[in-house]
Design goal:
about 200 residues, mainly alpha
Length: about 200
């Protein structure tokens, strides 16, 4: 079955857009401190794609980067501190010989899982809703628990991304933007369900 010329150009444009977005994300992450704003901008672009909004990759990316810079930067610092504390506490407790060691490790492990689940929804919630940072954290946590199947699907995408990179490192040229698209696509299903609940109430 041959792919006609119009479909070929559509596929080519799609691949080009994902490649360009992926490249923008990688370049903007180079200063390291811009990783979170850059990731928020990438999710802002794929949000427009999922919602079928026509937009230029460059224009949309830098607009989203500017709009979400302060919020994503501060949340990135907070998230880094929380994860750093969890890791430090886990390392410290693992060297203890106290009777309550397993209980403390279990509590930290559960906290780490909940923090990971919340993080999966963090950027989709940030770019989809006009919320302050407390609202973003609260809604990311609630959505990740209420719609646990979606959370596990997003987690599965992360695992597939890691597996794809380990299998063929060259996939990093498209991996992050494509992964972000499918992550937002799944999270948007949760957003739609929330909106349907509000309508029926």
């Amino acid at each position: 079955m041959k792919l006609d010329r119009s479909n070929f150009y559509i596929v080519l444009e799609l691949i080009s857009n994902f490649f360009l977005l992926n490249l923008l994300w990688l370049i903007m992450c180079l200063p390291v401190v811009t990783i979170f704003p850059s990731t928020a901008a990438m999710f802002g672009v794929v949000r427009e794609w999922v919602l079928k909004k026509d937009s230029s990759v460059f224009t949309s990316y830098f607009r989203c980067f500017k709009e979400n810079f302060k919020q994503s930067f501060l949340l990135g610092i907070l998230l880094s501190i929380v994860l750093g504390l969890l890791y430090a506490n886990f390392t410290l407790i693992s060297h203890l010989t106290a009777n309550g060691k397993m209980l403390l490790i279990s509590v930290l492990f559960l906290t780490g899982i909940l923090a990971t689940f919340s993080t999966l929804f963090l950027f989709p919630v940030m770019v989809h809703y006009q919320l302050n940072w407390i609202g973003i954290l609260k809604n990311s946590f609630l959505l990740s628990i209420i719609y646990l199947p979606f959370t596990l699907l997003v987690l599965g995408i992360f695992i597939l991304m890691i597996a794809a990179f380990l299998w063929q490192p060259v996939t990093f040229l498209l991996l992050f933007s494509v992964g972000a698209y499918f992550i937002f696509f799944i999270c948007n299903k949760a957003f739609l369900k929330i909106e349907q609940v509000k309508i029926t109430q």
